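Field reference: sequence -> structure
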Amino acid sequence: PGDVLEISLPKGAPQEKVLVPVKRTGTIEVAGVEVEVAGLTIEQTDGKLREALAPFYVKPQVEVLVKEYNSKKATVLGAVSRAGNFPLTGRTTLSELLLKAGGPAANADLESVRITQPDGQVYTVNLIQLVLQGRLRQEPVLDAGTVVFVPEKAPEAPKRVPVGEGIEVEVAGLTIEQTDGKLREALAPFYVKPQVEVLVKEY
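Structure field:
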């Protein structure tokens, strides 16, 4: 339900092409005839329509195309540009769904993409590895109701260097306050907002 079909009708019909929505009941109405199409493929819908129109047309030829996919959707959450629900237009792979979501964010951890299938089964995909190894053909094809979660990369732990080891600071001619400031600058790459206090123990 919710999909929109474009149907080319047989010669002699009032219109050559019509756009019809699939109703909540899973049916469509074409040329005054209601047809059940829920769960059918395009080819099966073709055949069902020909059967329904046979009493009104001689060997009716019809063609069905899906103009809008609204019934089958998957969800993308986490570190992407636009999280939300996205329609599955036919065969949709993981990378194609991520593109629908605007692509991964700069801090996305594509080595640990978590996929939850409609039946509740959960597994993790290393998309980076698939790309580097040229195995994108092996990436999963997603079903309706699948939830994809892209985690953020863990922040790198700040480097820590023991005070007094590995850092040399020029303090000749500086006051205590200036030495404080110079030390904070020197320690900033290794500590978050370093606070230091300098005392002269021996003059």
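Note: The chain has a mean pLDDT of 84.
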